[in-house]
Amino acid sequence: MAAKTFDLVVIGAGPGGYVAAIRAAQLGKSVAIVERENLGGICLNWGCIPTKALLRSAEVFHLMHRAKEFGLTADKIGFDLDAVVKRSRKVAGQLSGGIGHLMKKNKITVVMGSAKLAGKGKVTVTTDKGTEELSAANIVLATGARARELPGLEADGDLVWTYRHALQPKRMPKKLLVIGSGAIGIEFASFFNTLGADVTVVEVLDRILPVEDAEISAFAKKQFEKQGMKIMEKSMVKKLDRAAPKVTAHIERGGKIEQHDFDTVISAVGIVANTEGLGLEELGAKIDRSFVVTDEYCRTGVDGLFVIGDATNGPWLAHKASHEGVMVAELIAGGHPHAVDPANIAGCTYCHPQVASVGLTEAKAKEAGYSVKVGRFPFIGNGKAIALGEPEGMIKTVFDAKTGEMLGAHMVGAEVTELIQGYVVGRQLETTEEDLMNTVFPHPTLSEMMHESVLDAYGRAIHF
C-alpha cells in the first residue's frame, strides 16, 4: 500500500499535538494526526480536566458545610461518589468530542492507532484494520507521559492506585495514603480529604509541594493539617504489604521504620515519558531518563523531527505543550517564532487552598546571585477575600533589587490559579516594579493583593 503523504504528521493528540496540528493547518499545511487512545490525550481525558471537575464537586461540598457562615441553610449534606465521577467523565467526554470537531473543521486527517517511526519522514500506524503508512517532511512527536511506578509500589487498581484509578475510584477510601506531594498527589489528597477520607501524605523531600517557594509550601502545609491531613516529610515508603482489605505501609522516617495500615494507596511519584518502542533511537534521537533531548525549539537533531510536551524537557504542563505546538507549527511553516521560556510558564495546583507560581522562588533567585526585594500580602487584608469567606492565603513577589525586574511570584489561597496570569503577562513583557505600582487594579477584587504585594516589596503597602 502506498504511503499517504502530508506536510506534517503529528503523533499524539494531547494538548500539544492537536494544537500543533491545528496551527499547521491554519498555515496551509496538510496534516495527519495519529492517536492510539482518545483525542485530547491524557490532559482532557485522564488529567487536567477530569481532576478539576472532581475538585469542583469537592469545593461545592466544602462550601455547603459552611452554609451557616453565609446565612444559609443546607441540611442532610452528602455526596454520591458515582455521580461525582460520572460528571467528571461527562466533562472529559464533552471536551474530547470537541477536539474531533476541531479536526474536521481544520481538515486534519485523524488516524486512530499506534504509531512507530519507520525511518526519516516515515510513520507506520497499526490500526484495528491493519497497517497504514504515512510520510511527511516533518513529524511532531507528542506522545505524553504516564505515571511512574516504583518497584514494590506498583499499582494494582484495587488497593494501590495511580491517578487513572483515582479518577474512577471503585470505592470511597476510608484511610488513604498518598505517596508524593507534587501537584497530582496533593490534588487527590485534597479531593478525598474534603469528602471525608483520613488522608496521610508522604513526601521524600523536606517539604510538600517541593517545587514551590518554601514559604508557600509551609503555608499550604499548615492549611492542609488544619483540614485534618497528616503530612510526613523527609519520609519514604519502603514497602507495601497487601492483604485485602488493607495495605500495610512500611514508612522510613528519621532512620526508623514505621508501619501504618490503609485501605487505599495512591502512588504519585512522577512520570515516565511514552517514548519507548517508537523507533527514536534508531533515527538518532537522544533520550535521557525516558525524555527526548531537544533544543529550545523542540528540535531533536534529527532533521524534520520535533518532540513537544511531556515527552521532552519540563516543566511537564499542558499549557507549555500547547505553546510548543504553536511554536513548532510556525517554525515548520517558515515562520520565526520565539522559543518557549520555561521561566515564564506558570505552575498551578488546584488543591484547597490553591497554589500558583511563576518564575524564580526567593531561594532560587538568591542562588542565582540576585540581590532581592520581597513583598508579601495576606488575604486577610483584602476586602474581597473577606467577603468571599476566604481570608487564608498569601501573595509573594520577588524582585531584582538593582533593576526592579520581577523575578518571580508565588501565591496560595482562593482562585490564585486565575490570578497568576497577571504576573505571567508581566514576566512576558519584562515588567518592572514601577510598571506594576502604576497599574490601577479594580476594587473590590482579589487582584488588589497582587498590587499590594509589589508595594510591600518596596515598603509602600497600604492596607496591611
TrEMBL record:
<dbReference type="Pfam" id="PF02852">
    <property type="entry name" value="Pyr_redox_dim"/>
</dbReference>
<dbReference type="InterPro" id="IPR006258">
    <property type="entry name" value="Lipoamide_DH"/>
</dbReference>
<dbReference type="InterPro" id="IPR036188">
    <property type="entry name" value="FAD/NAD-bd_sf"/>
</dbReference>
<dbReference type="GO" id="GO:0004148">
    <property type="term" value="F:dihydrolipoyl dehydrogenase (NADH) activity"/>
</dbReference>
<feature type="binding site">
    <location>
        <begin position="180"/>
        <end position="187"/>
    </location>
    <ligand>
        <name>NAD(+)</name>
    </ligand>
</feature>
<feature type="domain" description="Pyridine nucleotide-disulphide oxidoreductase dimerisation">
    <location>
        <begin position="345"/>
        <end position="453"/>
    </location>
</feature>
<feature type="domain" description="FAD/NAD(P)-binding">
    <location>
        <begin position="6"/>
        <end position="325"/>
    </location>
</feature>
<dbReference type="Pfam" id="PF07992">
    <property type="entry name" value="Pyr_redox_2"/>
</dbReference>
<protein>
    <recommendedName>
        <fullName>Dihydrolipoyl dehydrogenase</fullName>
        <ecNumber>1.8.1.4</ecNumber>
    </recommendedName>
</protein>
<comment type="similarity">
    <text>Belongs to the class-I pyridine nucleotide-disulfide oxidoreductase family.</text>
</comment>
<dbReference type="InterPro" id="IPR016156">
    <property type="entry name" value="FAD/NAD-linked_Rdtase_dimer_sf"/>
</dbReference>
<feature type="active site" description="Proton acceptor">
    <location>
        <position position="443"/>
    </location>
</feature>
<keyword id="KW-0285">Flavoprotein</keyword>
<dbReference type="InterPro" id="IPR023753">
    <property type="entry name" value="FAD/NAD-binding_dom"/>
</dbReference>
<dbReference type="GO" id="GO:0050660">
    <property type="term" value="F:flavin adenine dinucleotide binding"/>
</dbReference>
<dbReference type="GO" id="GO:0006103">
    <property type="term" value="P:2-oxoglutarate metabolic process"/>
</dbReference>
<feature type="binding site">
    <location>
        <position position="270"/>
    </location>
    <ligand>
        <name>NAD(+)</name>
    </ligand>
</feature>
<keyword id="KW-0547">Nucleotide-binding</keyword>
<keyword id="KW-0963">Cytoplasm</keyword>
<feature type="binding site">
    <location>
        <position position="310"/>
    </location>
    <ligand>
        <name>FAD</name>
    </ligand>
</feature>
<keyword id="KW-0676">Redox-active center</keyword>
<dbReference type="GO" id="GO:0005737">
    <property type="term" value="C:cytoplasm"/>
</dbReference>
<dbReference type="InterPro" id="IPR001100">
    <property type="entry name" value="Pyr_nuc-diS_OxRdtase"/>
</dbReference>
<dbReference type="InterPro" id="IPR004099">
    <property type="entry name" value="Pyr_nucl-diS_OxRdtase_dimer"/>
</dbReference>
<keyword id="KW-0274">FAD</keyword>
<dbReference type="InterPro" id="IPR012999">
    <property type="entry name" value="Pyr_OxRdtase_I_AS"/>
</dbReference>
<dbReference type="InterPro" id="IPR050151">
    <property type="entry name" value="Class-I_Pyr_Nuc-Dis_Oxidored"/>
</dbReference>
<feature type="binding site">
    <location>
        <position position="203"/>
    </location>
    <ligand>
        <name>NAD(+)</name>
    </ligand>
</feature>
<keyword id="KW-0520">NAD</keyword>
<keyword id="KW-1015">Disulfide bond</keyword>
<keyword id="KW-0560">Oxidoreductase</keyword>
<feature type="binding site">
    <location>
        <position position="52"/>
    </location>
    <ligand>
        <name>FAD</name>
    </ligand>
</feature>
<feature type="disulfide bond" description="Redox-active">
    <location>
        <begin position="43"/>
        <end position="48"/>
    </location>
</feature>
